[in-house]
Amino acid sequence: MPEDTAREGKAEAPKPAVPDTTDETADETRDETAADTGGAAADDGAAPDDGAAGDGATGDGGAAADRTAAGRRNALRARLRDAKLGERAREAIRNVAARRAQAKGPEQEPGGETADEARAEPPAEPPAPLSPIQINPVAIPEQRVHEPGADPLTDMEVRKREAGVEDSLPFGRPGQPLGRTHPFIFGFTGALGVFAAWTLIQAIASARQVLILIVVSLFLAVGLNPAVEALQRRRVSRRWAVALVFLGLLMVFAGFGAAIVPPLTNEITAFIDHVPTYIQQLQQNARVRELDQRYQLLGKLQSTVTNANFGKQAVNGIVGVGRVVVGGLFSTFTVLILTLYFLGSLPAIKNFFYRMAPRSRRARVALLGDEILVRIGGYVAGTVAVALVAGTSAYVFMLFMGIPFALPLALLVALTAFIPLVGATIGASLVCVVAFFDGTGTGIICVIFFVAYQQVENYVIHPRVMKRAVDVHPAATIIAALIGGTLLGIVGALLAIPTAAAISLIVREVVVPRQDTM
Question: What's the average model confidence in pLDDT over 108-122?
Answer without folding.
Answer: 47
